[in-house]
Fold these 2 entries.
Entry 1:
Amino acid sequence: MTRLIEVQNLTLQFDTDEGRITAVDDVSFSLDAGKVMGLVGESGSGKSVTAKSLMKLNPGNAVYGPDSRITLHLDSGPVEVMSLKTATEMQIVRGGAISMIFQEPMASFAPAITIGKQMVEQLLIHTDMSPKQARELSIEMLNRVGISDASKRFRQYAFELSGGMRQRAMIAMALSTKPKLLIADEPTTALDVTIQAQVIDLMKDLVADFGMGIIFITHDLGVIAQTADHVAVMYLGRLVEQGPVREVIRTPAHPYTQGLLAALPHLDDLDAPLVPVPGDIPSPLERPAGCVFNTRCSKAIEGPCQREVPQFTKVNEGHKVACHLYTHEKVSA
Amino acid sequence: MSDGKPLITTRNLSVHYPLRGTLFGPKPVVRAVENVSIDIIKGSFFGLVGESGSGKTTLGRALLRAAPITRGKVVYDDGEVRYDLPEIEGRELKDYRSRAQLIFQDPYAALSPRMTVRDIIAEPLEVMGLTQSRAETDERVREIAAKCRLNLEHLRRFPHAFSGGQRQRISIARALVSSPRFVVADESVAALDVSIQADVLNLLKAIQQEMGLTFLFISHDLSVVAHICDYVAVMYLGRLVETAPTRTLFRTPRHPYTRALLSAIPSLDPDDRGKAQKLEGEIPSPTNPPPGCKFQTRCPFAVDICRKQEPELERAGKDHEVSCHRWKELMETEPQMAG
């Protein structure tokens, strides 16, 4: 298995009028080629910001921590994303080695340019294809993602396509440059369940065919269970649990992961009460000291959880959790 | 409150919207809702599910007299008053507005950023003239706010200071302050995070039981509907395809569309991958619906009759109705349809 990307101690803050906000706090993970990593978290947990950092796509007021390191392993050798400065240097990753699919396909296509022209344009920038080759490849990709009548769709505008169709076109466009890593940010959230099932199937086929790595961002644990090999759970900018999908979903270790699973309605037991995670996500301006989850955690230990930031502990092979319950076992017993 | 009588009864309710036509020939219409007959029992949670474009929001709005009723009967009867909804006007319509309320989907768009929470919740009372003095208004606002777990300090603040879950509780308080009997909740938890969604669902259920309310709960999320609703109606292209008590519907779905919707919900079991029964294609445009059964273009079991004749709703069990030409046959020949 070849390592595709390594993220080490990624910290990202935003300078705002109200002060410096920590959006990502000391996040480390890695992904192998041909694997799907699910990044789960609620709104405000920092999952999209983390993904965008991989291409340094965050706005000008973003301040990266000095220890942050992102290493992308390409055929030509490793690339340190943090040391890329100019837009030209950045082209290696942006749209080249890394492509991204967004949640709202209507917002990610330019409304006044045909789908085909947008697909061809990026191919001309990132590859040395001729316009004719780019056109042929684009139509072939539209076909590949299950869009019927691809040469007609190629000439249409985004508004002429249905939601599911647009998301397929977005995927076709993202994959036509043959990226090593695909970041899919809530790609099925805006779709109906029946269309969501189609898009998930399509993405699984594409991983098998193209062998790329995928970072799949979602708040839906069901979607994660159906797609990911590994899961990383994020809360208020910190990773709280990481591990193989079966382990994390069947035997969640962190109280937050356990809470998320208990809050989901289960179809096989309609009488089971829905158990909300108590309280609200704190504002990023008022990040709790110690463990970020301690204000909502029913198992918080008085003292350590409010003071010390928990470090990752191994629960099982490849399964890690950042929680004091696993380091202060005598206290919790 | 619940005596088994319907609060809302519709018979062959249709909502059509005219389209810009050509100079010649009849004007084309979009049949957003077509021949819908449902009974919403007093004190129940009635779920309405379907994909986008199925007409569920339009139906909800028609029941609130917020969408034009083209044809059919809609009766509201809460024991105190009885209204023929397509007919009422003026004072009666105003009175109906205080008895039937709507909770919106997006708690970020539904609240005015320039009003305090107190003013947002009090506005319906003032507009409808339901209270005599400011003191009385304040008391009603405080009472409903407490029910929705908002405290006095919250009432003085503006919506921007609140999280999504808190905002949705403010929207709920605003909808309930006029003491309605009937509430339409249109995708009211769709914009919320999972950990908050359970909290709002539990709150809705508690308030419904406490105040004896009747809810029409519109959602595309079948697992949420399964947990909160007593009855469920499934819509497709403006038509009802199946209605049943929740448990019956989830245990023995009879319509191929209901079946497909259920199996498209991503399972939490990672070893369940690829077992789902996949539905091909997408919902057709309501401006150009297919002939016969509206679902025939995507149905794996469609035969000749489905392409020619539109099926009627028929009885499939106690309170269970399904509109499919082949449901009985499929129950015998398709083991996964037997449920």
Entry 2:
Amino acid sequence: MSAHVKQKDASIPTIPIKARLSRWFGRNLIRIYAVFGFTYLFIPVAYTFAFSFNDSGKSNLVWKGFTFDNWKNPCGAPEVCTALGNSIKIGLLATIFSTILGTMIAFAIGRYAFKGRSSSNLLIFLPMATPEIVLGASLLSLFLVFQINPGFWPTVIAHVMFCISFVVVTVKARIASLDPRLEQAAMDLYANELETFRKVTLPLVAPGIAGAALLAFSLSFDDFIITNFNSGTLKTFPEFVYTSAARGIPAQANVIGSAMFFLALIIVIAGQFVGKRVKVAK
Amino acid sequence: MSKVKLPYLLLLPGFLFLFTFFILPIANLAQTSTQTPIADGDTGQYEQTLRFSNYLDAFTENQEQFARSFVFALCATVLALAISYPLAYAIAFKAGKLKNFLLVLVVAPFFVSFLLRTVAWKQILGEEGFIVPSLRTFGIISESTTLTSTSFAVIMGMTYNFLPFMTLPLYASLERIDPRTMEASGDLYANGITTFRKVTLPLSMPGVVAGTLLTFIPAAGDYVNAAILGSPNTRMIGNVIESRYFKIVDYPTAAALSFTLMVAILILVTLYIRKAGTEELV
């Protein structure tokens, strides 16, 4: 008996080492990999942030010294703030229109069975499956046919067009995850359809709509290809970066990029925090 | 208001918009693609002559760029999948309480403008960045080798820029997997690799399909990465379309190229979805 136990003891160090090793790999290889992944993701962000403090003068290519001047005076470089203003205006308008139109479509597709539902889904999928350059170029050709000059409103229209599909997909996903019993309960408690929609359905779908609006704004704000085709002489922030890339981008552009990064981070984290509190309150 | 009409009323404004600014432009693009220059007209004036050989001319002239677009997009998609899958897996199963925070970190870099990040890569990989000199010191690359203006830089830029489109759908489908299915597979004496191959991977296929499509489509039509990180030797079809539109004002060729690109992508996507067998997208 004791010999048997001893033999088992002796074999413990060999098998478990292999098992432990493979378990260690199973557990940690993926973590190590994830650390590398995040490093890759953040290299250009760190670079952009670091060079927003560069005492660079006109061309922000080489590190010349640390300064807060760019942050104190983000509009110091010509055109930066005009371009930023254009991007924000276009982004807000595109967000409002695409969120309204997209949410209506999402309710129709997500809530009702009707003839033509699957072709409606296809129409929503198609703009997402079309390369941006085709969307931008084809819209420009249309504007040229109707002799509409590219500029502010054509850009807004272009942005609304490509944002709608993303809004529909996001809101539809939220509607699909709703528990139908909640609405049935409201009806049982003598709420009519409109009241049920206003007091039960809409508040439940609201986080999805908010998420869709945030997505639409960031898509619009960051778009370059479609904008470049339809903006004419108007310059958005990404277009400003593109055209000044050859000569070197002023450090103020890095300030704005970094500020957007932190702002978005705060909004997203605050959103999660509010979401948690709402859940707790319930 | 009758109940049957309600979904159609909800769809109407959005679909009217999509019809005018998505379907109509694509139809117009098709119409432009067979035009020819007006005899003794100004540059940029064309008339409809139904010249379908525009397509053949456009394609034979730009075969190389077409092939490069699809090869680059494929490389970027495969690389993005290789980077994103372990990342999404780590967030879904190994992150514990940090899950939401890490998810925000994946998206966060994308709030720094797309253009700024690409320009940042150009400078990081450039002669004054920190990567090239250190690779030279260790003798990994020769003195004359550069990283910018190469296919490597363009593919790397595309991989980076479309990464969240891969990571987020992968995460969404991995997160939905019940961990008990993996435990069950382990209980049935499958090792880690078998469990992954037979349980986790098949269950995450909808995410793989969605992610690869959302990466491949924009990558194939992209011209920003090639313009900033590449050289005239790495031109993609997007660069050709862009210059045909703005520099040469050759609308019919640009339209024929756009249309060919769109149809090629749609065919590939359809075949791929059939092969991969998922209908969750549409």
